[in-house]
Amino acid sequence: MKTLKFKIISFVLTFLLLILIKGVIIKNNGIDVVLDLKSSKDVEIQLFYTTKTTDGFTEENSKKISLVKSESMEKLTANLNINKIKMLRIDFGEYPGVIDLENIQINGKKKINVNLSELKNYNKNQIKDIIVNKNSVSILSDSADPYIIIDDLDTEGLSSMDILLTFTFLVLFYFLIYKFLLYLKIKKMRVSWINLVYIFLIAFVFIFPVIGIDNDEIDAIENRTLAKAPKLKKNNGLNLNFGKDSESWLNDHFYKRRVVITFYKIFDKVVSGRVENENAFLAKEGWYFYKGDNSVKNYQNIELFSEDQLKEIENNLLERKKWMDNLGIKYYTFVAPDKNKIYGEFYPSYIKKINKYGKVYQLREYLKHNNEINIVYPYEEIMKAKENGLLYWKTDTHWNEYGAYVGYLTLMSRIKSDFPELEVKMENNYTKQSEAYLQGDLAKMLGINSNEALDVKYDRFFPINGYEFTFIKNADDRNQFIPDSKYDFNLFTSRKHVITTSPKPLKVLIFTDSFGALLTQYLSDTFGYVEYIPAKNLNEFQDKIINEKPDIVIFETVERNIGVLEYNLPKLKEVK
Amino acid sequence: MLFSSLIFLSIFLPVVTGLYFMVKKELRNYVLLVASLIFYAWGEPRYLAIMLLVIIINYVFAILVENEKYKKIYLAMAVIGNLSFLVYFKYFNFIIENLNKVINLRISFIDVIMPIGISFYTFQALSYVIDVYRGEVKAQKSIYNVALYVTFFPQLIAGPIVKYHDIEKEIIKRTVNFQNIYLGLKRFSFGLGKKIIFANTFGAVVDQIFGTNLDVLDYKIMWLGAICYSLQLYFDFSGYSDMAIGLGQIFGFHFLENFNYPYISKSITEFWRRWHISLGSWFKEYLYIPLGGNRNGQKRTYVNLFIVFLATGIWHGASWTFVIWGLWHGIFIIIERYFSIEKYNKMYQKLLRYIYTVLVFIIGWVIFRADTLSNGIKYLKIMFGLKKNLITGYEIGYFLNMKVLILLVIGILASVSAFKFIFIERNTVKYKIAINVFSLIIIIISMILISSSTYNPFIYFRF
Prior knowledge:
The structure holds 2 protein chains of 2 kinds. By secondary structure, chain A is α+β, with helices and mostly antiparallel strands. By secondary structure, chain B is mostly helical. Chain B has helices at about 5-20, 30-40, 50-65, 70-100, 120-135, 145-150, 155, 165-170, 180-210, 220-250, 270-275, 275-290, 295-315, 320-340, 345-370, 375-385, 400-415, 430-450. At the A-B interface, helix 2, helix 3, helix 4, helix 5 and helix 12 of A face helix 1, helix 9, helix 17 and helix 18 of B.
């Protein structure tokens, strides 16, 4: 009898809860943006959105979706986790091409179908033409950053009752109440209400990360594809990594992930008085430095080369040179200085140098007795140029266009002694334009959006008579190079294979890391054929060098990776 | 699965707890057993087989050992069986390495990864069989109960090592109520905070210092590293024990305490009564006493202590640094016994004893942490000014930011029981609210820290 009474009370309480909170669990469905479209290439579409007409577009309020190239229309749906939308900016990938659009639909409380024939009238960027077909429109862009802003949207997000969750929740609630009453009665337990509230609050904090799942596929700030939902079966068998997979998935998709991470960054900065993690740190006057790859030790010059190591590198470089000589190729080693060597004055004072000069300097001095070896390290040149402007980005580990230019000049002065006919691009060939740089790999590693970056201006270099080179092969199959588009760092740093041609003489293969990317605009206008190959080990490409028969081979590395010169495997083959 | 992961806190724990309270009493052990097996198999399902084998072996041998006939032989077989798992997975390569070195053999290493928690659960299993052998408890008729004892997830991965006779009754019958849930959760929250807020912060400093070339550091930084490591170990391990004890309590189990402010000890003997108590008492009950304990004269007692601490060192890992660390403690225990150190109790004597104890365990931890013995010794030399680096690459500020400094101060005070008063239960409403809010804040901070550790940006230029 007693238990029946409890059951009834529990039921009534559960029912009351249901009425009180109206459906209990409201699923915030946000706003769905549905696009029917196709593209001749794989593109990454980014949707920027605002909830007010006065807001600007930011990476935080954006969502990336991938479109795989296809012959037929694909339906792409992106769920924007907002309850109101005013403006939507659709970025059609990073490079020019044609995209056919059949439908743009915004599904909130209202369903809005964007009138495609009106698309022409919206604000747009780098879109050459919009051709209205029978059922679709074709968007033609000739540039790296095509987008359209649809600014007349006004709908609230859709919410609905999550039936399954609500039912589960109600059943749980019912049992909880019931059990609770039983305990109170049977055990004659005096439960302190304070402790009871405590238990519920703790349970809530624990469950908070899973009360909603963030379905983003790509995180715009972390710039990576987030973990996919785990599968129990894999390759016709059980997925033994199911546990690990589901953990990565949860870690990437828990509720309010971005908010929590941002909050922590601010909190940590206040408490520790530093902006630092295992990858990077913020030092004096807004200068960021890289921490990985032993960068701090490298700054301190703790380790120098031993006599044996110097000898070994000399032998390797000599061997390389002789091998190239036999093929009729001129070979140069080019070392880009580390940022902390050039702007060490902004390094934290609690990190001290052990030796004045580092490995690269030591190596260059050591090789001075050997006229046969070409090693170019533009340290002095860059240091000297510091009075004329910034040579590295404050928020990035790389040199900027000016730094790369000084590096280029130094390299060219060496190459020109072997090829006097070469025309080096002098500074008066360029107009300079001052621009802020709002990105930066170091800021990204720390998860920081620095507003101070707006006040720092860097010189950009534009050739007065335009670029002379064209791409044969571009990093992401871009068929054009558009340097006067927005400040697109990725355009340079995608270290995929790049080939350019111009009416100039000589064929060059350059094996390079990310520091080579910004050399593109100078080197490609200086030489007739330049191939940029991302590589740390030149010897792996010996067959390619033999086949391509270039006039010049350059091996570029950043200072902190100078150790790669110690390795010369696989051995270079005999050539006649 | 780790206690400090989102998947455990947000999904596993709520689901298991919810189910546990909803099912009938008779089914509760099964819920816990299945949960424990999932918990164990989560990261690496392959090793589930080894654990199941350990369970079956011990279930069978416990029944055999109960028979008067051949009981010694069966016990020996059970002990050898359990230890051989441990030796194979944990020590085999270490033994080979040393054999190769000493007698110039060329045996190749085996390709094994140590199953997580194996040191803990084989010791628990041993405790069960030995308890049955001694007639202290009856062999379990139900293999499920044996399985639950061995695999129970709160203590599966990092202890405490629960002895069978301590838990036997609760496996069969225990009280489950809100008061226990409350106390358990509270205990768990303090453990989680110890691990996430303190141990992880100290750990980051320790990794940096111990990962730096010792030739460019000065003694101040070495001390910082040693102190941070001592605190990291304490907060990590005792935090984990707190979480285990708390979780146990939620489900109605009462595990014995595993730490009792070891860093206030005034002798190494006392230190071992307060540090990892469940391991110390395991060795006492199942090794020291069977060896004869202190009943066979002084010399034999010293030998027994030596053996126990050698075993303690080896138990911690297959490396000479652990062996030396174990012996380091063992030697001081023997010396303390010889001089009866615990009878010197005047104020200044206590102070001297305290300083001596702190120095011994800090030196011990440096050896424990060092990757090689020679690096450990080098570290200690710089720390105590016996070796001085002419040029140093860092000032202490590099490792010691404001956050670390604050936590260091709180951590040191907490580890010497300065905040003990906070945790003494009082029956006033004010106290209850205050302690609950405190615990809630700790949980919130910990959850934020755990969540934000998932930040993992993709960096362009590393290839």
